[in-house]
Design brief:
- The chain has two domains: 36-268, Rossmann fold (3-Layer(aba) Sandwich), CATH 3.40.50.720; 279-373, Rhodanese-like domain (Oxidized Rhodanese, domain 1, 3-Layer(aba) Sandwich), CATH 3.40.250.
- It is of the alpha/beta class.
- The chain has helices spanning 10-15, 17-20, 26-35, 47-57, 90-101, 119-123, 136-149, 176-179, 192-195, 201-218, 264-268, 282-289, 303-308, 344-354, 366-373, and strands at 37-41, 61-65, 106-110, 128-131, 153-159, 162-168, 227-232, 237-242, 279-280, 296-299, 315-316, 335-338, 360-363.
- The strands form two sheets. Strands 3-2-1-4-5-6-7-8 form an eight-stranded mixed sheet, sandwiched between helices. A five-stranded parallel sheet has the order 9-13-12-10-11.
């Protein structure tokens, strides 16, 4: 933030009148908001409400990082975007919506994916980071870079009906790795598409993230530093856990061993090439479907997913019922398991191998990869 607070124009005094009447904000606080520069990582479920409320509150500059496009499945929860934005980069959609909401907020769209090579440059010039990412590689990268560049960030995450919020990398406070020292194995991480998420949940969590960022900028209240807020939507219950700085943390500890941004695979120490025996690519499957030895395709998704998209010739046996329907699998033919993105199908493969089936492979990338590489008439969702 600048040393000389920017003046508020007459129209801004009117726009923020309800802020100005609050003693904790007032003109001085609104000037702090106008001078502030916030970096938002992700313009999806969490980033949507966070962006809307940060812009509405009068944040002067809002950087938005996202390399994805708006698709129909986003609109159930990503309220920053609308039907007219389908197919557009999320940064383009976000910039248009935020400009309409508050033309005084300067939006800096960055249609890129954060990596170890660009994260410092992207964060440069921003006061605080709001992490609305939906994957562990970005989450750990944001944490590490925030600690190393000396700026706090507001963490948020969602899963099905539950959410978490905290403020990490604040002076003297813990970082994300103090809570979760190591990321889980990639094959154990379900996406929103695989696990599902109640559409309103990111609205709650993302709004809380915006609140924490605004409190930090204003210097009011008690920030969620050293505290992890847990939200259960089904029970409508909040709980709070204490998180202490780990003096042996590899990033923010007394003797850090990770001193530069690293990518997720490098941190884990593994970067496995696809197991050729476990997976089959879409193009390999296409070739086998045209050969005499046509494999039996077992689609292990749920019936509602089958109704959206399927590969012609596949058979629906949901993963939850596979154990009871093994008699429907032909042990004399090669078997290919299929799901949405290739996670459940790997689990199904392990189940079939354990049951004695010998030639079983999982479709790498699932229905999504098949749609992108082979048949675009098969819907992506």
């Amino acid at each position: 933030m600048t040393d000389h607070p920017p003046e508020l124009r007459p129209d801004e005094l009117l726009r923020y009148a309800r802020h100005l009447t609050l003693p904790e904000v007032g003109v001085a606080g609104q000037q702090k908001l106008k001078a502030s520069r916030v970096l938002l990582v992700g313009a999806g479920g969490l980033g949507s409400p966070a962006a809307l409320y940060l812009a509405a509150a009068g944040v002067g500059t809002l950087g938005v990082v996202d390399d994805d496009l708006v698709d129909l499945t986003n609109l159930q929860r990503q309220v920053l975007h609308g039907t007219a934005s389908l197919g557009l980069p999320k940064t383009v959609s976000a910039e248009a919506r935020l400009h309409d909401l508050n033309p005084a907020t300067v939006v800096i769209p960055m249609a890129t994916r954060l990596t170890s090579s660009n994260v410092r440059e992207v964060m440069a010039g921003f006061d605080i980071v709001v992490d609305g990412s939906d994957n562990f590689p970005t989450r750990y990268l944001v944490n590490d870079a925030a600690v190393m560049t000396g700026r706090p960030y507001v963490y948020g995450s969602i899963f099905r009906f539950e959410g978490q919020v905290s403020v990490f990398a604040a002076p003297g406070g813990p970082c994300y790795r103090c809570l979760y020292a190591e990321p889980p194995a990639p094959q154990l991480i379900p996406s929103c598409a695989e696990a599902g998420v109640l559409g309103v949940l990111p609205g709650v969590i993302g709004t809380l993230q915006a609140l924490e960022a605004i409190k930090w900028i204003l210097g009011v209240g008690e920030p969620l530093v050293g505290r992890l807020l847990l939200f259960d939507a089904l029970k409508l219950r909040f709980r709070e856990l204490t998180v202490k700085r780990d003096r042996s943390c590899v990033v923010c500890g007394d003797r850090p061993t990770v001193t530069g941004p690293v990518d997720y695979e490098a941190f884990c120490g593994v970067r496995h090439a696809p197991d050729q025996a476990a997976e089959i690519t879409p193009r390999e499957l296409q070739a086998e479907l045209a050969s005499p030895a046509v494999p039996q395709m077992i689609d292990v998704r749920e019936p509602w997913e089958w109704g959206i998209a399927r590969i012609e010739g596949s058979q629906l046996i949901s993963l939850s019922s596979l154990g009871d329907r093994l008699h429907e699998v032909d042990g004399r033919r090669p078997v290919v398991t299929v799901c949405h993105s290739g996670i459940r199908s790997l689990t199904a493969r392990e189940l079939l191998l354990a049951a004695g089936f010998g030639d079983v492979r999982s479709l790498a990338g699932g229905i999504d990869a098949w749609s992108a590489q082979i048949d675009r008439k098969v819907a992506r969702y």
